[in-house]
From TrEMBL:
Protein's UniProt name: Zeta toxin domain-containing protein
Organism the protein comes from: viral metagenome
Biased composition annotated in UniProt, kind: Low complexity: 296-321
Region (Disordered): 283-321
InterPro entries: P-loop_NTPase
Gene3D superfamilies found in the cross-reference section: P-loop containing nucleotide triphosphate hydrolases
């Protein structure tokens, strides 16, 4: 799939396994909550082992899965990662917009349009070709990624299938609400769903290391690469962790019917993606091969050159946000 318009209801239901899940008389809505990188997706096996959900027959709602399914996201984020490796520490690429935008291309190339004239001719030529593939993908769609996720949850509940919802929570102290959970509980009112909140926690330093290895060494090395940047700073992660814990505490007060279980995740360091050395020339060729059109001409021009064939090791001084 290339752009937001490809995410039809049918496609979303297939991605989230709503289509294949069968209705049950005793459905479970399992919320797996925790900060990014803590191991929410890995917690499925433990949830099955504990009997919270069946082994196969359930839907999984994770907005990251929708974003990562789109080639436009993989292309734009991979371009940002490549330029970071090439020494452009001032790149400002963020993924939050991808979840909220209704534009066909999720407005993911705005950062590139601002800086592409400053690139060396060889890099600019390759990346401009990738950019040109999505130059007309600007039509406004009826739903954002966030709205597609909310609609999918409604369809899953209407079908009465068990659901696993992976998310990070925050508590609005001023309004006294946990917005995501309030919406879900309103939806589940007068249904037979049992609601369980599995709160995944872990040492912040381990989570920071896992995030760094995943985003710098694993996802950019895939055959269809992408770069979902997340600050791997322990200070930033500690703040998110605090917000998440406050939200869980509030949920226990506001919704005593929700069974809350805390699970500590442990990191197996041997399973972390290994550091990789990227040859910029090969990475540039890979991106243009995977994401660029077979034949494309760019209306952009450049007036300076620079050699970019050295090897670099990806590191944590990420400038994209």
């Amino acid at each position: 799939m290339n752009t937001l318009d490809n995410l039809t209801d049918e496609t979303v239901d297939n991605i989230f396994h709503i289509t294949e899940a069968s209705p049950t008389t005793n459905p479970v809505f399992l919320i797996i909550a925790g900060i990014p990188g803590v191991g929410k997706s890995s917690a499925h096996k433990e949830a099955v082992k504990r009997g919270y959900i069946p082994k196969h027959n359930y839907a999984t709602i994770n907005l990251d899965t929708l974003v990562e399914s789109l080639k436009v996201f993989r292309a734009a984020s991979s371009m940002a990662h490549f330029l970071k490796l090439d020494g452009h520490e001032d790149i400002r690429f963020g993924t939050i917009r991808a979840y909220q935008s209704k534009h066909q291309d999720l407005e993911l190339f705005d950062w590139y349009d601002k800086i592409h004239e400053t690139l060396d001719p060889q890099t600019k030529k390759r990346l401009d070709k990738i950019r040109s593939r999505y130059s007309d993908a600007t039509a406004i769609q009826s739903h954002s990624i966030q709205e597609l996720g909310a609609d999918a949850i409604e369809r899953a509940v209407k079908k009465q299938v068990s659901v696993v919802y992976e998310t990070t929570l925050s508590f609005n102290k001023k309004e006294g609400i946990v917005k995501k959970i309030d919406a879900i509980m309103d939806l589940l009112k007068d249904t037979s769903y049992r609601v369980i909140l599995l709160h995944i926690v872990g040492p912040i330093e381990e989570i920071a290391k896992r995030i760094h290895h995943r985003q710098e060494y694993q996802t950019p090395s895939l055959s269809m690469p992408f770069y979902r940047y997340m600050p791997a700073s322990e200070t930033v992660l500690s703040k998110i962790d605090k917000d998440n814990k406050e939200a869980v505490k509030a949920i226990q007060t506001i919704y005593p019917s929700i069974s809350v279980v805390v699970m500590e995740a442990t990191m197996n360091e041997s399973r972390l993606p290994k550091p990789k050395r990227y040859t910029l020339r090969k990475q540039r060729h890979k991106l243009s091969t995977v994401f660029g059109p077979s034949r494309s001409t760019s209306g952009y021009s450049a007036d300076r050159s620079r050699s970019s064939s050295r090897s670099v090791t990806s590191h944590s001084k990420a400038g994209s946000k």
